[in-house]
Amino acid sequence: ERMTATTYSPVVPVRPRRYILSRMKDKIRLSRSIVGPEEGAAAARVITEDGYLGMGAEVQRFEAEIAAFLGVPADNVAAVNSGTAAVHLAVQGMVPTGGEVLVQALTFVATFQAISAAGAVPVPCEIDPQTGAIDLADAARRITPNTRAIVAVHYASYPAGLEAIHAFAAKYGLRVIEDAAHAFGCRYKGKMIGSFGDAACFSFDGIKNITSGEGGAIVSGDRTLMAAVKDARLLGVEKDTEKRFSGERSWEFDVRAQGWRYHMSNIFAAIGRVQLKRFPAEFAPRRVALAKQYRALLAEVKHIGFFEWDETSVIPHILPIKVKDGRRDALKAHLASENIESGIHYKPNHLLTFYGAGAVKLPVTEALYEEILSLPLHPGLNNDDVNRVCTAIRTFAG
Predict the structure, then answer these.
(1) Is 374 within 8 Å of 343 (Cβ atoms)?
(2) Coil, strand, or helix at residue 357?
């Protein structure tokens, strides 16, 4: 039996009833890494057999395997050290300094930080409260002569309205950058996210659909962009990727553009390769099954609503619900009293001091922010855990 952070010895001791009852109150975590001996062995192999811990052949193999999974050429993938770095490099490669980027305010601050770090200007827009996608009607009102790109954030893994976003971008002459941090392994109209479009940026941090410990990837068929990204992740050293993949270093080189130390390490790539193998048969179906169970158990509960979801194409990273009638914070406290973690994804960025402290008014987003509450979702949960969460919510709802 595969041993992970959520599996145990097959020897089950007899426990007294009071112990069993106390276990019912064990903490149910909002999210967690699901790793085990295989990931440990892969990292150990790099340490003990390869001996080179930086970016090398293991990263190259991980990129090739991601490309095969997505159905794209290996050259379309560049592994980096975080999803934030992926968005940063994509923006830097597509948007000139001072260019404006349309992006929904309801996203993790990493999206906004990546845009501003690239010297561009994030322009906060409203969200569609049903799908979690950017509101294109609101985005259209915010276009100026300096607008250069639009970020499609796949909130809660759902690539909603992507076709409309691309049509919008074509109409206004914009590039499309997909913040697909939540959406690895998801599809849109039968096509894998990352297999089409301008650029998709994935995250492989500890709690995403797959993890490499820390890490991310940019996927694009734009050869000019990918050449720039591959140099920029290695401090702008030209053609250093090829050297490192062949086990060499660049000693005589040139730098023509700003670069960053954003490359992925061989250790992280080794972990990611194991996770990628586990994803189709283990992680993906479990996440979908858990989401379906939540939706079935909470479908008729008052005060509770869901975002749209397509169970045939979306593998959920998080599971946000909408708690109506101003009861979100009370429900969060109630779950905490039952030793159940919950979260709020996310505080809208236009309310943060660095991004305007609410100078821009986005009433739809602000109202939604007061309702959203994320329930525990990760492959380490079992059906009894979900039943316990939903029982607590139904008890609260009355």
Answers:
(1) yes
(2) coil
**Which of 269, 327, 283 has its CA nearest to residue 54?**
269
Could you tell me the maximum CA-CA distance found in the chain, to the nearest angstrom?
Answer: 71
For residues 103 and 201, give the distance between their C-alpha atoms in angstroms, rounded to a whole number.
14
Q: Cα separation of 124 and 112, whole Å?
A: 9
Strand segments (E) across the chain: 77-80, 100-104, 121-125, 147-153, 175-179, 187-188, 191-192, 199-203, 216-219, 304-306, 319-323, 372-375
Residues with catalytic annotation? 208
Q: Side chain identity at 66, as an amino acid letter?
A: I
User: Which residue from 318, 376, 340 is spatially nearest to 30, judged by alpha carbons?
Assistant: 376
The structure tokens listed for 393 are: 């919510």
Q: Work out the number of other CB atoms within 10 angstroms of the CB of residue 280.
A: 12
On whether the CB atoms of residues 334 and 303 are closer than 8 A, the answer is no
Q: Collapsing DSSP states into helix, strand and coil, what is residue 43?
A: helix
Residue 115, phi then psi, degrees to nearest 5: -65, -50
Residues in CB range of 18: below 8 A, 6 or more apart: none
Tell me the two tokens of residue 149: 């790109």
For 65-75, write each residue's pLDDT tens digit: 999 999 999 99
What are the distances in angstroms from CA 104 to CA 256, 289, 318, 368? 33, 29, 18, 13
**Residue for token pair 């106390």:** 22
Q: Which runs of consecutive H residues, i.e. helices, occur in 194-265?
A: 223-232, 240-245
Q: Is the pTM of this model over 0.90?
A: yes
Could you report the per-residue pLDDT of 89-117, keeping only the tens digit for each?
A: 999 999 999 999 999 999 999 999 999 99
Amino acid identity, residue 80? V
Confidence of residue 210 (pLDDT cuts 50, 70, 90): very high
Percent over 90 (pLDDT), the chain? 91
SS3 of residue 156 by DSSP: helix
What count of residues does the chain have?
398
Tokens 């509450």, residue located: 373
